[in-house]
Structures are given as C-alpha cells and as structure tokens.
Amino acid sequence: MSKNSNNQGRAYEYIWIQTLYEALYRRRKTRIIENSSLLANKKAWSKIDQDLQDDLTLSAQAAIDMLLELEPMLLESNNNDELTLEFQTDKKGVEGDVRDIVIRRECIAWVIGLSIKHRHEDAKHSRLSKDLDFGNIWYGLPCSQRYKEAIKSIFTRLEIAKNENKNWTDIQDKEETVYIPLLQAFIDEINRAYKKDRTLPEKLLEYLIGSEDYYKIISHDEKRITLIRTFNVHNTLNKQDQVNISIITVPIVELPTELVVLRFKKDSKTTVEMYLNNGWQISFRIHNASRKVEPSLKFAIKFEGMPATVMTFVCEWKTK
Questions:
Q1: Where do the domains of the chain lie?
Q2: Could you give the angle at which helices 180-196 and 145-163 cross, rounded to 10 degrees?
C-alpha cells in the first residue's frame, strides 16, 4: 500500500470514529479513548485536502443510520452506562483481529467492531518469501519440504537481483520464471495441506476474515456509496436491547467445509482462484509491492463470492 493510500485509509478511520461519536454523544454517554492510533489517524486526516475530507465525511454519514438500525444496543443507555469508541493498534491485526474500531459498553459484556476500508475490498495483503511459513500462519499447518524446495530457486534469483539493485522492469520473463512457478507451488502446497487436514477451509477463512465478528465498511468514492457487510461468524452482532428491536436480522455466517478446486484464473499468469462450498470464492493475485526487486512477493487476496449470510447494505451519499 502506498503512503498516500495509507494516509487516506487512516483519515477515513478517523472521520468514522468522529462521525459515530457525533451521532451518539447527545443521546447517551459516549467517549473516544485516546491512544497512539487516534493520534496517528488524526494526523493523517490533517494531511488530506478539503475535497477529500468532505467526501470521506459524506461517506461516513451515509452509513451511520444503517449501523444504528443494525445495532440497537448502541443507543440503549442505563444510567451511567458508558459507551467507548477505540481504535485498535496494528498489532491486533497481525494477531488476527481485523477490527479497526472497537465499540464497548463498559457495564455489560457487549462489544462490536468495525473494519474500515477506503476504496478497496481486499481481505488481506499477505506475503510469500523463502523463509515465511504461510501454512503455519494461515491455517496452522507448517509448509512441507517439497514446497520449500520448489520455491528456493525462485527466491534465490530474486535475492541476487536485489543485490544487483535491479528493478522489476529489468526482469523481462518474471511471469514465466517467478509468478507462475511460485503460484503453482502455492497451489500444490494448499492441496497437500488439505489432504492432511480437512478443516483447512474453515481455518483459512477464519484467517482471512478475522478472529472476531465485525461490520466491514467500504467507501466507494467514485460511485458515491458506502457499503456495510456483516461478518457474524460467532453470533455477536445485531443483539437486541430491552426496548428497541431491529427490523433487520443479521444471520450467522456459514464457513466453508470443503475445498472444491484451486486453479489459475483463466488467461491469467498472476492470479489463482479458490472455490469452496457454502458460497465462498477467493482470488489470490500475486504482485511486486515495490519498484525495486525484493526477495518476497505480496498477495492481494479478495473475496469474489460470499454466501448470502454475509449481508451487504448499500448506503448512498447525500448530495453536497
């Protein structure tokens, strides 16, 4: 992710917590917890221009009413019951909790989270390298020796190119000598792991969507819409309060139990597609993350298909 995209993402997170606070604090006791992530996101907000600030504000405002409808517990207040809004640290994401904003009610055991995305819907940007054991990280099964041997020469070549200060444009045959054999080794390793552990599909999905339930908020600036997606795997979202009942019922998300096929995308040398049961389809697009050659490559992992139990709400922006 470029520095500019990272700043815009952080700025969008900042205006979301501020917009949420504005919608709540007059109606119930609410507080934003100050931490280093809040300061970093506020700084990013100050660095973007006024037009983008206006658009991101409209984007957040467009989805607030729908979020309040989905979560009646946000507005319920009992005496001094305080609701807190807090940014998570980046460390939490590494540990498997992908929520950017965590919302708690201090007097009861109630927590929900928001994952905030600006202009993209990628699930993860995981890397592959010679020494990175993706199998152990993704689904708890260490990569085989066969996989390590298959990728060894690829990354050795990239290490040499890095030491020679080469750019990716200097590697004319990178698709045939790097991308395709690396992706084939990836496909073979996933298939080997699945034969050993039939729970791999569920574990892989839990890695991709995160360890906690949340609402995924995606801003599509060019379309002037904000999407809200429900990832309610553990049935912690959409709880009713003692007075208000949402007209919307958020179902529990069904995880996959079977890997149907993993193969190259048609006419592509950089992308493989995974088809699983229960409506899941995932694409893995490999790419170099920088101009200079590095002995690692990055995936853009995206959900191409999801079950109907992952609900999507489209919130149109109001005209300026």
A1: 3-119+211-254+308-316, 127-205+255-305
A2: 150
